[in-house]
Design brief:
CATH class: Mainly Alpha
Distance between the termini: 26 Å
Number of helices: 12
Bound molecules: fe (ii) ion
Radius of gyration: 19 Å
Number of strands: 4
Strand order of the largest sheet: 1-2
CATH topology: Hypothetical protein af1432
Largest sheet: 2 strands, parallel
Strand content: under 5%
Shape: globular
Length: 249
């Protein structure tokens, strides 16, 4: 990885805490410290469906590849990874299970169960997915810097992100745009899918143009941006990324 790219991030995969420390430090009395909060522990805590987990894990894997290849720019790697891993934490409240049951993947056989989870989450947190995710992140003690990054990532911010110089935000938004509900796609495929599926983005050519500008900007500092060979790497990173230790969680 290009060392000059990151403002932080060498602590990517620390060993989970929670081990018995008594032998290491010579205490006769057993001492334990709390286990680290990982991406998976929050997916479990907030009943995140497996397909949504996989989306966030793939976004993180894409961001990891892009950030790892970039040079000459500053990226807050720890915040970037945390934001990718958690950015859609509360999205079950907006799932249209009737319309897109296949998005549940293998869990479609437990559709009734996930519809029940959705009802519970809506009752507890409401129906605004952005607000739901924000509350969950706050409940989980995720630092403000990560919460702000997530809050300012959504597609309507594409123009501002393209115009700006924050490379962490550019990588974050772009990585999310390369991961469709069922896997990695080209930017154009993703834009076509999102613009067709989501009424609020229909006719927003300005946002699509901004996304393409971000892709060009990233291609100029991170080469190659993503290759076909990266698809296999992305899925192979998923088990490790589930264990990613989250800051302040
Ligand atoms: Fe996403």
């Amino acid at each position: 990885m290009a060392a000059n790219c990151f403002s932080s991030g060498s602590n990517m995969f620390q060993e989970p805490r929670g081990e018995n420390l008594s032998s290491a430090i010579g205490y006769t009395q057993k001492m334990t410290v709390p286990a680290a909060v990982t991406a998976q522990s929050l997916y479990d805590r907030f009943s995140v469906p497996p397909n949504l987990q996989e989306h966030m894990l793939r976004v993180a894997a894409v961001a990891e590849i892009i950030a790892g290849r970039c040079a000459g720019v500053t990226v807050d790697f720890s915040s970037l990874m945390s934001a990718c891993l958690l950015h859609d934490l509360g999205n079950i409240v907006k799932f249209e299970i009737d319309k897109y049951p296949h998005y549940l993947g293998a869990e479609v056989v437990r559709r009734d169960y996930w519809e029940g989870v959705q009802r519970d989450m809506i009752e507890r947190y409401g129906t605004d997915d952005h607000a739901v995710t924000a509350v969950m992140l706050e409940e989980a003690g995720i630092p403000v810097v990560v919460r702000r990054l997530i809050d300012s990532k959504s597609f309507p911010h594409a123009i501002e992100i393209a115009d700006g110089t924050d490379w962490t935000r550019k990588i974050f938004l772009y990585s999310d745009l390369r991961v469709a509900p069922l896997g990695i796609v080209s930017l154009d495929e993703r834009l076509d899918e999102a613009l067709a599926r989501l009424e609020k983005y229909r006719g927003r050519a300005d946002l699509a143009d901004a996304a393409r500008r971000i892709e060009s900007q990233l291609a100029s500092v991170s080469s190659p941006l993503l290759t076909d060979a990266d698809s296999g790497v992305i899925d192979s990173r998923i088990p490790e990324l589930r264990k990613f230790p989250l800051p302040g969680g």
